[in-house]
Prior knowledge:
Bound molecules: adenosine-5'-diphosphate
Structural class: alpha/beta
Number of helices: 15
Shape: globular
Largest sheet: 6 strands, mixed
CATH topology of the largest domain: Nucleotidyltransferase, domain 5
CATH architecture of the largest domain: 2-Layer Sandwich
Amino acid sequence: MLVLVINSGSSSLKYQVRDVAAGSVLTEGLIEKIGMGNGGGGDGEIEGPRDHSEALEQVDAAIHRELGELELGAVGHRVVHGGERFAEPVLIDNEITRAIERLNPLAPLHNPANVLGIRAITRKWPDMPQVAVFDTAFHRTLPEHAWRYAVPDELYTNHGIRRYGFHGTSHEYVTRRAAALLDLPVEEFDGVIAHLGNGASVTAIQGGCSVDTSMGFTPLEGLVMGTRSGDLDPSILVFLGRAGWTPEDIDTMLNRESGLKGLAGNNDMRSVVEASEAGDARAAMALAVTSYRLAKYIGGYHVAVGGAKALVFTAGIGENSHQFRGLVADRLAALGIELDAVLNGERSKEPRVISTAQSAIPVLVVPTDEEQAIAEATAAVVSSAG
Ligand code: ADP
């Protein structure tokens, strides 16, 4: 089955056409500046599509230019927030679209854009099966002691303030691949998955299910990321509010100006590692903070799962930065974890073990592929509905 995978943002639309069985990408692209057209079309002014429907026309034209006539079997949407309702991918109908829309307050930047993408497809191809794959769904198995914040109950009951977790599609996909690499049925896999990209989160897996994860009510909680702070004392926000910072100022600072960027002046791990190796003390400090925080989470999650059988690195940094993996592993010696320098330094696109034979548990690198995971989930939902 050919699946069109859509990741719809407020002003952009990312797409891939996937052959699910082959696991291959037939074509892909990104439409930007949606709704930012100036209408004048003057010299040098770029005019984007007017809205998501016009963007979809461009996607359709690009797909046909690249691939000629083809039969799409379904469309799979990456949807950021599935709230408490969605624990699995679902076939979209009007009721589901409205349910996703009702979750807008929980993900004000993302869910409205996802709904625009869904409605654009519905208008253009009314009979096309569409599936929503939620970033939060895999974490619906978190026990209450992991998802509760210790605040008055009313914040949860009236405002839905609890931990939801994100990156679930990637954590689930990587869990399955890691279990397969270790020759374990996924239901017997207990481990810790570190998804380290621009956004980063770590998940505790027990019996193949998510039992804790570092992102919370929003993707801001947890690890030090490219531009996000991760955990901090909430009183800092009160302090800044009293000093005259607006909610928007605080939001921008925490989500866009913090993390590696705030500490080292650069949000790109490769550049920070290079600067540190060239003797830049700020870069070295940023790496120390980032790796230390991750190691603390891994230690905690080792406890949460009752003894992990593996530690898994994935996403841009996890798959590519042997230096960062090394820094984290150095801090995990107390758990008996030991990397093999040669295996850690090798470059490969295949899932692999990078620890020594003596290491208390294996350390793995398992490449993630969220679009393939969405395409597979979409095909599975459509087949079982048909
Ligand atoms: P996103 O969350 O945007 O999908 P990615 O998973 O692509 O992010 O990860 C981006 C991060 O991966 C950046 O910090 C980048 O520097 C890092 N990265 C990518 N390739 C390498 C590499 N070869 N060495 C070190 N870091 C890398």
